[in-house]
Amino acid sequence: MRALTFVCLFALLGSAEPKNLLPRAGSGWAGFKTGSSVKLKLVQIPKGQNARVTIWTTTLKEVGAKQLTLATVAENVLQMKSEQKTIVPREGEAQPGEKARTEIVGDEILLVGRKRLKCKQTRTKLRSATGRRVINDWIATDPRVRVKRVMQFYDKEGALTQSITMVLNSLNETRTVAAKQIPCLRYRFLMRQKVKGKPDIEEVGTVYTSRAIPGNDVYMDTKVRQGGVALMDKRLHALAFTTK
Question: Largest Cα–Cα distance in the chain?
Fold first, then answer.
């Protein structure tokens, strides 16, 4: 997650093909052309304090053979602006400097509402000089959709520092973005962050994603707490987007 890492999804190709609801590769940007963009708004409300608002626009600047270049311009409520370029892999999970290995774990039936979906579980292990990540995905074949994802982050000593779990609980949602009805998937979201000598920080809530929007992020509503004590409410909205 972007501070928390965190991470998302999804066209009939013909009557014989299962519907593809999988998240786009490249952090949600693969398949879009240069100039595509999304504008997001994050509202953070710390307990007992005024809301903090940040708005940013991310644009796909370059499509390479193996990587994508994104440019993000952010501004906060004081209209202070900053710009940052990010390189993301066009396919796969490995960031620059990481080595990845993926294995098939097996098959499992998972429930989404009352629907039983047969899923294949895969495990991707990524290692770098600063630590390692382990990503477990449960992918259904009909429709093609990520039903569950569990990500674990470890420091270079091997200690678990953070985990993120997303579980699909609705296949048929819509959200309005710039007066357009966007088909979405709805996930339950849980992030746990280790704090030395203190209770874990937890972020719990709901995430809406759609492969129709660059970056996949549509809406997020979460609450942050530590040891059962509320720390902050957070809401992320997609305000507008363009596709090329």
Answer: 56
What's the residue count for the chain? 244
pTM over 0.85: yes
Closest C-alpha to 149, from 96, 94, 188, 101: 188
Backbone angles phi, psi at 236, to 5 degrees: -115, 130
**What are the extents of the domains in the chain?**
43-56+95-242
Residue (of 90, 92, 77, 148) closest to 125 by Cα position: 92
Tokens, residue 10 = 């999804």
Confirm if 140 and 119 have CB atoms less than 8 A apart: yes
Query: Please, what is the average pLDDT of the chain?
Result: 90
What are 181-197's pLDDT values in tens digits?
A: 999 999 999 999 999 99
pLDDT band at 97 (very low <50, low <70, confident <90, very high): confident
What's the token pair of residue 88? 């993301």
CA-CA distances (angstroms) from residue 160 to 163, 188, 205? 8, 22, 22
Amino acid identity of residue 162, one-letter, is Q
What are the pLDDT digits (tens) for 115-146?
A: 999 999 999 999 999 999 999 999 999 999 99
SS3 at position 139: strand
